[in-house]
Amino acid sequence: xxxxxxxxxxxxxxxxxSHLKLNDVNRIKSVQKTAGGKGLNVARxxxxxxxxxxxxxxxxxxxxxxxxxxxxxxxxxxxxxxINQESRNCIAILHENMQTEILEAGPTLGFEESDxxxxxxxxxxxxVSSVTISGSLPSGLPTDFYFQMLKISKSEDIPVxxxxxxxxxxxxxxxxxxxxxxxxxxxxxxxxxxxxVGSDVKSLKLALDHELFKGIEWIVVSMGSDGAFVRHGGDxxxxxxxxxxxxxPVGSGDATVAGLACALKRNQPIETVMKTAMTTGMLNTMESxxxxxxxxxxxxxxxxVKLEKxx
Length: 311
Ligand code: ATP
Description:
By secondary structure, the chain is α/β, with parallel strands linked by helices. 35% of the residues lie in helices and 25% in strands. It has ten helices and 15 strands. The radius of gyration is 19 Å and the shape is globular. The model has no long low-confidence stretch (mean pLDDT 96). Bound molecules: adenosine-5'-triphosphate. Adenosine-5'-triphosphate (ATP) is lined by residues 185, 222-225, 227-228, 241, 244, 246, 249-254, 256, 278, 281-282, 285. The site of adenosine-5'-triphosphate has 21 residues, from α8 and α9.
């Protein structure tokens, strides 16, 4: 079983409009509401890949209840810490080929909630063989919160894959309890290192040689339609993918994390791990709903992923 963590889940609401009128009334005919948050995308794809998954994090109020109900409908186990505050709504207005987003910050957590969650997390580790942690931290939690979760996982010998950015990622990398894998994209990598990292092999290799990545077994730098650049231990790989028909690329990074988690959990060879992660990422872009794949297309696209080891 894999534990997928989303500390600040949301109800994602999409409002399609032919034209957005400012300072006026906009009436919406069809509303789509889904359980959102990066870790929930990861969980859905893990489930679609045929692995058992538990979702956790912090939620509350009627929005929190909606998220739980959506997970139940998908037959995904949920073990969230319930709080008195309301979970957030994230609104996307789709208009004139543009997407205008209105994102609530969500609840602010205090010491009590933070301790209660860490205790819950420790207990859940007894049921799983690996963990994925995705997305940003809710306000009120210290920037080293993911490191605290890593320390607990390390003490239970449970490997962790982390997909976060900014200071939360830096804190994970500077401390001694290391994740098994991280999955930055190029802009997150550039932000972390404070330099513009190019997408050529030389720049990527130089970037991943940085002191900050010492001790991280897997670094998967996802590069959208350009596939990925991977460091595994001391080896570097360029992972190439075919040109495909993209319907909705949102959540592809999360689907990549899901593929990575499934292949690592199955102890598959390193080539299979990289190809699986790329395939789930690609399959996500081919579906209209975010964080979802068609498992029946897996073999066809897996065969089209090519690897090149860099000397
Ligand atoms: P997000 O934040 O939306 O989850 P990300 O920036 O973390 O995305 P990307 O690098 O865009 O992640 O995509 C992850 C993987 O998904 C890629 O490595 C690739 O396998 C697949 N992918 C994404 N976009 C495309 C695309 N346009 N064509 C083909 N594959 C894609």
